[in-house]
Predict the structure.
Amino acid sequence: MNKGELVEAISQKISVSKQEADTILTTMLEEIMVAVAGGSKVTFVGFGSFEPRERQAREGRNPSTGKSIAIPATRVPAFSAGKSFKDKVALGK
């Protein structure tokens, strides 16, 4: 499913226009990104949570030359699925 298909499903399910559904979805995603970028954790009970995680500096290899390179520490977004989401995926429904 892509964003367009999700917008279509939302618009049909809650009887709003596709434009309104797109605005709602886009705003929700933007707000999640702003919160996580600011260091906050965003939790949807049953669905999951989004949070920033620190990734340690490490040594990597250039795949074409095999030369060692330093990969700096960074902060990355992470998602952890909630119990209801995990159960639904496990059942395939």
